[in-house]
């Protein structure tokens, strides 16, 4: 029945939308503010479970390639301006999407995504890490793309239910977790470069192990810093998690791999400002000009930097520990080289949900080989952050306010 109604309604919309220009009075979205009161609601969630014949075998936790396996169910929420906005959320068996070939997402990259994780704690309880942060970032990406906003709390409740249904997919291991990939796409079947009046928000779940191979975790990652390329610029979208930021990086990533390096260190501007490493925020730990230890990461004041949840958590922990100076400021490759030459560059590391914390051991920059001593210290700060964050995530630290328990 639901299926049938969807088909009818879908074809009705397909016929309607190319022919009608909505008057401004029908514009129910305000482009400048999040409108949680216009949201879908968890209370309207319907659930259709996969039959036993459709359930997939669970992969061995030792062989989890990032984002390769998906659980048995997914969450789908449609938005149709012509039907009054957000429709009721549905949990359905994991399935392919059917899209009109003119769907805006396929032409103009009207797409945004999030990445967060649920962990099976040492006490057996499943918890999500700071989902509220991902929800507000998702809403800010939606606004930037002219997609509809929603109540983050309602989406977290729906995700909670989805994880509950697929809970056996949350790995029984403190080296693995369940990755959530909320996504929103503009699905108007019209080629105009204009805001999409239909959208689909969906959430899929993938059990994941470590993002990096064991050797990379042990030896640190190597980076290519090539000033010819940049991923973001002032006034651009580098501070939003939108798909269009990532496609164009593949070419540069391949160049890094061809030179025997693992990731790209993204630079910006004439002075080769250090911005991000791959899809991670970057941190530098050094001895500053006053002889003090200082942790430095680029600030969120320009649109060059993605406001990472891991970044925010590391800054929070560092300020709470109060063992060294913590600064959000711009730094350039010249400073990295200078500190390194004076043996004052102690550590360089990336931070993001997928890898948590990833030490950097080598950077190739303008024909120079920079050996970064991150891995050579007995008690490196990157490891302190990694250990503390995993203790929080796997419930070793009890009842941490960052963790939301799945009922
Ligand atoms: C997702 C992402 C990060 C890390 O953000 P988290 O919320 O910590 O996962 C950093 N940089 C880029 C470019 C990203 O896409």
Automatic annotation (TrEMBL):
One of its GO terms (molecular function) is branched-chain-amino-acid transaminase activity. One of its GO terms (cellular component) is mitochondrion. The modification N6-(pyridoxal phosphate)lysine is found at residue 241. Signal peptide: none annotated. Its EC number is 2.6.1.42. InterPro entries: Aminotrans_IV (IPR001544), Aminotrans_IV_CS (IPR018300), Aminotransferase-like (IPR036038), B_amino_transII (IPR005786), BCAT-like_C (IPR043132), BCAT-like_N (IPR043131), BCAT_family (IPR033939). One of its GO terms (biological process) is L-leucine biosynthetic process. Gene3D superfamilies: 3.30.470.10, D-amino Acid Aminotransferase, subunit A, domain 2 (3.20.10.10). It comes from the Eukaryota. It is an enzyme of class 2 (transferase). It catalyses: L-isoleucine + 2-oxoglutarate = (S)-3-methyl-2-oxopentanoate + L-glutamate; L-valine + 2-oxoglutarate = 3-methyl-2-oxobutanoate + L-glutamate; L-leucine + 2-oxoglutarate = 4-methyl-2-oxopentanoate + L-glutamate. Its cofactor is pyridoxal 5'-phosphate. Keywords: Amino-acid biosynthesis, Aminotransferase, Branched-chain amino acid biosynthesis, Pyridoxal phosphate, Transferase. Pfam families: Aminotran_4 (PF01063). Belongs to the class-IV pyridoxal-phosphate-dependent aminotransferase family. This is Branched-chain-amino-acid aminotransferase.
